[in-house]
Design goal:
The protein is of the alpha+beta class. The chain is built from nine helices and eight strands. Among the domains are: about 170 residues, Beta Polymerase, domain 2, CATH 3.30.460.20; about 60 residues, Methane Monooxygenase Hydroxylase, Chain G, domain 1 (Up-down Bundle), CATH 1.20.58. Helix 5 packs antiparallel against helix 6 and helix 6 packs antiparallel against helix 7.
């Protein structure tokens, strides 16, 4: 275990994780029938658990990396505020030790480890448990990455559990503690939980902004050149927005319970700050619902665009057929094998027939041109999106 004054936050490069296209973002965990209550199900690819401790008050702040579970005991009953961040849920022994030292209920530890869980808040008298889903834009492709974050709030400490050891959205909070910015070092642990929860909620806005741009681009493409690739993209967007809704919808009730102050661990001053989280959740829900409606309307726009494209094809066939109908009639009349047809024995009959057919075709073409039937063929190809 190493100890040093808190320094600049260390940002780790995110690992590139392969995902199957048909994998669900939030396929919530469920116990098998007859399983033992409190059983921990460690994922095979879960990262080893790593504990980072930040202890602070108004006069000082220290940061300890790779802390052992037993070393956390003195910080559970001090007058300072202790933030114990557990990164990675792959070490069952470490997690059970943390549970014993922190006196976590077995069912509480089960919800923390067996991910993902539905966002919720539960009061265990001396501890308040909060489970949320943290999202961030996918660095290498469209969509987003998700991770469960669990909070265990005590009187003077805050335990957080993260699935990964990669970059999170808490660096700005760590920097505030290190530099003594704002009022974080003057407040209690419930204010620290508010800052972390607010960072998670604000992380939804960049993800939603990306979806807004994608929907706008698809609308432009559908108006100009609809194809099946756009149909697949519409289905992907609708599915991902549904996953976002599943993550943020329960958070409305969670933040509402924090605002009402049903737990003794949430002070009246912190309730006002959690009201800001509640407002942001409502705003995110409105944006998600709006984008879901737009994504649904994109399907109608796709069908309408395909119908318009089919109409243009039918218009071409109609013009060609209309021009050749009288020509076919003339050719059919003079192609009959009757012996007594006066025009067949005329010296200039063949030339006159061709001229008549040319005049009829030219007249029909002029008629259609004046009616504007050739405008779709002369329409210029516009850019598909603003990015082009």
């Amino acid at each position: 275990m190493t100890q040093s004054p808190i320094t600049e936050p260390q940002i780790l490069n995110p690992e590139q994780l392969e995902k199957e296209e048909d994998a669900d973002y939030f396929d919530y965990f469920f116990d098998e029938p007859g399983s033992e209550p409190g059983k921990l199900n460690i994922e095979p690819d879960a990262k080893p658990s790593r504990i980072v401790l930040i202890d602070y008050d108004q006069s000082h702040a220290i940061r300890k990396v790779d802390v052992t579970p037993n070393a956390l005991t003195p910080y559970l009953g001090t007058n300072t505020i202790s933030w114990m961040d557990v990164q990675g849920l792959g070490s069952e022994r470490v997690l059970k030790q943390i549970g014993e030292i922190s006196k976590l209920h077995p069912l509480l530890l089960e919800d923390v480890v067996n991910v993902p869980q539905r966002p919720k808040v539960e009061d265990y008298n001396e501890q308040l448990v909060l489970i949320v889903q943290m999202v961030r834009p996918n660095a290498n492709e469209e969509g987003f990455e998700s991770e469960q974050v669990s909070f265990v709030l005590g009187t003077r400490y805050l335990l957080t559990f993260q699935e990964e050891e990669i970059e999170d959205c808490f660096d700005i909070v760590r920097e505030r503690i290190r530099a003594n910015q704002g009022k974080v070092r003057q407040e209690k642990a419930d204010y620290l939980m508010y800052l972390l929860l607010d960072s998670i909620i604000d992380g939804y806005f960049p993800v939603l902004e990306d979806y807004g741009d994608r929907i706008e681009d698809i609308e432009d493409e559908l108006a100009m050149d609809p194809n099946t690739n756009q149909l697949k993209e519409i289905y992907v967007i609708r599915r991902e927005l549904l996953a976002l809704r599943r993550a943020i919808w329960p958070l409305r009730n969670v933040t509402n319970m924090l605002v009402r102050g049903e737990s003794s661990l949430i002070s009246s001053e912190a309730q006002i700050y959690f009201r800001d989280c509640y407002d942001h959740v409502i705003q995110i829900l409105d944006i998600v619902e709006t984008y879901r409606e737009l994504a649904s309307s994109l399907m109608d726009a796709y069908l309408s665009s395909m119908s318009n494209k089919m109409n243009e094809v039918m218009q071409v066939l109609t013009v060609v057929s209309t021009i050749f109908i009288p020509l076919t009639f003339i050719a059919g009349v003079y192609g009959m094998n009757f012996e007594y047809m006066p025009e067949l024995h005329t010296r200039w009959g063949y030339i006159a027939c061709l001229g008549l057919m040319t005049a009829i075709a030219g007249g029909l073409i002029l008629f259609f041109w004046r009616r504007g039937w050739f405008e779709p063929f002369a329409r210029p190809k516009l850019p598909l999106s603003k990015k082009d």
